[in-house]
Design goal:
542 residues, alpha/beta, Rossmann fold, eleven-stranded mixed β-sheet, three-stranded antiparallel β-sheet, 19 helices, 14% strand, PHA/PHB_synthase
Length: 542
């Protein structure tokens, strides 16, 4: 198994929360005139006689009740919208450094979401519900709250845990587990065409989530769509680790990808395969390719595709804006004590990135209105996270803190210094226009990655871009080769194209997929017999 080794890299500048708060307060005290100017502007906006009534976005589900447009509730909503807008203007012109600005922006979003009038007793939906149920809804909400407290739930659940069943409602594409290892199961899917491409496709999902987002339902399954276009599709289903697996790190997962890719090539009698990495699975794919390049074994791959994968330098996300070295060290210590990052901790971290969508509306619905959440497949998947081994968390934090891929040899695996400029494979990359986890500029491949590169900017957010049906009329994308220049320069050169990005990807992939041949009649092979029907065992493990 490859061993991980880090060459010391210069520490990135960072402040802990206490230091950051002190720096922000100091900078704020130095600009009293600026604050007074915006305070006056806010009062002018709040005055109904001198300002136009503000309205929320039609897509904001929190304010769909008609009473939000009139009376005291309408004015309350106007005041909140005015304060949010003025706060954003105040922050944009504030004379502070970028780290402080990002931290204040994050805190501002948390404050805005928490103080939304939809969370108050004046919520007209709450008042109407109390009248209609004669107060029974509030009693039901208290029962929900007590039940969640007894289960130690940190947040209101997004979905009923029993709403869907894997293999019956979700992840229904026919296939079979053809290899089961301590780290993963390898799933081979049943071809849907008489002829298939000779070069197989191996999908590497993120180790933070269950794989079935890529096979959620028949009409939006990426796996099924690739099968319908004649691809031979294999997929890695990562195991849900327990404390005994705390030392599973990037080296472990990359070794697993190596083993799975060898198995796929043997089963298909193919000298090469195509890789498709999704989110953090794309990062693992990138490191795997760099390791192969260092060993002169890159010829076993034909191409690499990346979906919403953070590749740009400065991989720091919103999750790390308030985290300095001491904070991250405490996080590491806590995770190592546990042996893993728990699924609940991961769910909470992602939920607080969008509290106006994933925290407060659910709390109002469940505890104030006394209602149960709607059964939605996407939300069911989003709260079905897995644990992440302590070593893998540590390794990802190292990437986010130091970005060693910018310096050839700063990261080593099994004695091989990694240099992504030596990856000469043709690559296809997709970023999402409204991605809040991996901003599309971070998914844009930089010049230090070798090989010919093609980039697609798809409509939608981090999850929705993967789920739009191939024939979705509302979807659009930009597509074009990557050349010198920034991501913004690239965007200005591309035209908007209607439709979904999958057709663009499969058209790009076709030249690297080999000749057509008859589809295999049976899954697996003599050396890799069918062990279990898809979606397998590991995806069910709690």
């Amino acid at each position: 198994m490859p061993e991980r080794h880090y060459v010391p890299a210069p520490q990135q500048p960072g402040l802990d929360l206490r230091q950051l708060a002190a720096a922000v307060v100091r900078d704020l005290l130095e600009q009293p005139g600026y604050h007074a100017q915006h305070l006056v502007a806010l009062f002018q906006r709040l005055c109904p006689e001198t300002s136009q009534r503000l309205s929320p976005s039609p897509a904001d589900r929190r304010f769909q009740h008609p009473d939000w447009q009139q009376g005291i509730t309408g004015y309350l909503l106007h005041c909140w919208l005015a304060a949010c807008a003025q706060g954003r203007e105040w922050l944009s012109g504030l004379q502070i450094n970028e780290q402080e600005r990002q931290a204040l922006a994050w805190l501002g979003r948390q404050l805005a979401a928490a103080s939304a009038p939809s969370n108050s007793l004046l919520n007209p939906e709450l008042i109407a519900r109390l009248k209609a149920t004669r107060g029974h809804s509030l009693c039901q909400g208290m029962q929900h709250l007590l039940a969640d407290l007894s289960l130690n739930r940190p947040l209101a659940p997004l979905n009923d845990d029993t709403a869907f069943h894997l293999g019956q409602d979700l992840a229904t594409t026919p296939g079979a587990v053809v290899s089961r290892q301590p780290l993963y199961e390898l799933i081979q899917y049943q071809p849907t065409t008489a002829k298939v491409q000779s070069t197989p496709l191996l999908i590497i999902p993120p180790p933070l989530n269950r794989f079935y987002l890529l096979d959620l339902a028949r009409d939006n399954s990426l796996v099924r769509h690739a099968l319908d276009q004649g691809q031979q599709v294999f997929l890695i289903s990562w195991r849900n680790p327990n404390p005994s697996h705390c030392n599973w790190g990037m080296d472990t997962y990359i070794a697993g990808i190596r083993q799975a890719s060898d198995q796929v090539r043997l089963m298909c009698v193919s000298p090469q395969l195509n890789l498709l990495g999704v989110c953090s699975g794309g990062l693992l794919s990138l490191l795997f390719q760099a390791w192969l390049a260092a060993r002169d074994e890159l010829h076993t791959l034909a191409s690499a595709s990346y979906l919403i994968t953070p590749l740009a330098s400065g991989l720091r996300s919103e999750l790390l804006h308030l985290a300095g070295p001491r904070t991250l060290q405490r996080l590491r210590q806590r995770i190592w004590r546990q042996g893993y990052l728990s699924a609940r901790q991961l769910n909470a971290a992602f939920a607080w990135l969008r509290p106006e969508q994933l925290v407060w509306p659910q709390a109002v619905q469940r505890y104030a209105l006394g209602q149960t959440p709607d059964d939605r497949a996407t939300l069911f998947w989003s709260q079905d996270n897995t644990r992440v081994p302590a070593r893998l968390v540590d390794d990802f934090l190292h990437l986010f803190e130091h970005d060693p891929l910018t310096s050839p040899g700063a990261l080593q695996l099994h004695g091989c210094p990694l240099d992504i400029s030596q990856i000469t494979l043709p690559s296809w990359h997709m970023g999402a226009e409204r991605d809040h986890i991996v901003p599309w500029q971070q998914a844009y491949p930089t010049a230090r990655l070798g090989g010919e590169k093609h980039f697609v900017l798809a409509s939608g957010g981090h999850i929705q871009c993967l789920l739009n049906p191939a024939d979705c009329q509302r979807s659009y994308y930009h597509s074009g080769p990557v050349s010198a220049g920034s991501a913004s320069d690239w965007q200005h050169l591309q035209r908007v194209q209607p439709g979904d990005w999958k057709a663009d990807w499969l058209a790009w992939l076709a030249p690297f997929s080999g000749d057509q041949q008859s589809a295999p009649r049976q899954l697996g092979s003599t050396h890799f017999p069918v062990l279990q029907a898809a979606p397998g065992r590991y995806v069910h493990e709690l």
